[in-house]
Amino acid sequence: MRVNGKEITLSSNHKLLDFLEINQYDPQKIAIERNGEIVPKSAYHQVILDNEDRLEIVSFVGGG
Amino acid sequence: MELLINGKKMELNCDTAFEVRDCIGKPQDIVILNGFQIEENCRLKENDSIAVIGKGRLPKREELESMMVARHTPRVHEQLKKGKVAIAGLGGLGSNIAVMLARIGVGQLLLVDFDVVEPSNLNRQNYYVSHLGMPKTEALKIQIAEINPFIKIDVRKKKVSEANVKEIFSGYDIVCEAFDKAEMKSMLVNTALAELKGIKIVSASGMAGYDSGNRIKTTRVMKNLYLCGDLENSAEVGRGLMAPRVQICAGHQANMILRLLLGIEEV
């Protein structure tokens, strides 16, 4: 799987939400594009990742 | 030859820009030829655009617009005047971005913020002591009318939530995310990308403190999402938001919006 341009191998099919937790992403402060489509937050617990996926995970920090 | 003089097509028997100036104005007047203020005389071509502007003279409203347009590069202004941009959050980023977009002549702006101007805003936001207590939407609307009275301004004094993103922002070409909290940035970007097909978002992340200004960049992180900032420096205890980096970031956002309005999608 490609995450933010880097190649990663998944050992088994992961739930997106688990992947985020393991990699310490806060679901409240990110946006995810999966294979060119935005993933709604309400779908984070449903999406199962596979090794063909391309993910872009954008993290936001506070300030403006 | 036929020339565009102060916004009007005119047939004039002049070969150089300064001949036009001497014909319709005074020797000390400012001369702008095709969007550029000239100090030395230039030969003219058919259809050149020339503005002759008297220093210190208050122009009439219809004259003013052509004088302001004269400073824009030809063809750029027409496209920007058609542009519709919504700005979500009128703090350090949003207030400065709104003023920049007004100065370049973006035709229609939507200003969205629920808050009023407070003393703690004045260190970086585009407001004055005279605006304290006033809704930010109103304070900014008044300023923009003074900067460029030819811009259509809509305001919404409202807190943005998942439930109202579609209703507030539909109909705009670009949404500029200029919120303060990371959760709000994330909410707006997610909801707008999911519910407003084809909309482009110019967002910001990481501009607090006084780290190098050169670390602030514009990146196209998704097909329709551009992100400006250093992506790291959050506002937190011991690292406040300061005018220079906030304005550098606002400048990145405004410039990306300008590029998108001109049809350029690369950062």
UniProtKB/TrEMBL annotation, chain A:
Pfam families given in the database record: ThiS (PF02597)
PANTHER family (UniProt xref): SULFUR CARRIER PROTEIN THIS (PTHR34472:SF1)
Protein name from the UniProt record: Sulfur carrier protein ThiS
From TrEMBL, chain B:
Keyword Disulfide bond applies: no
Listed SUPFAM superfamilies: Activating enzymes of the ubiquitin-like proteins
Gene3D superfamilies reported for this sequence: NAD(P)-binding Rossmann-like Domain (3.40.50.720)
Top-level division of the source organism's lineage: Bacteria
Pfam families per record: ThiF, ThiS-like
GO molecular function, one term: nucleotidyltransferase activity
Residue ranges annotated for the THIF-type NAD/FAD binding fold domain, each copy included: 69-266
Record's keyword terms, sorted: Nucleotidyltransferase, Transferase
Transferase in keyword set: yes
Boundaries of every ThiS-like ubiquitin domain copy: 1-56
Xref: PANTHER family: THIF PROTEIN, TRNA THREONYLCARBAMOYLADENOSINE DEHYDRATASE
Protein name: Sulfur carrier protein ThiS adenylyltransferase ThiF
Protein's organism: Acetobacterium fimetarium
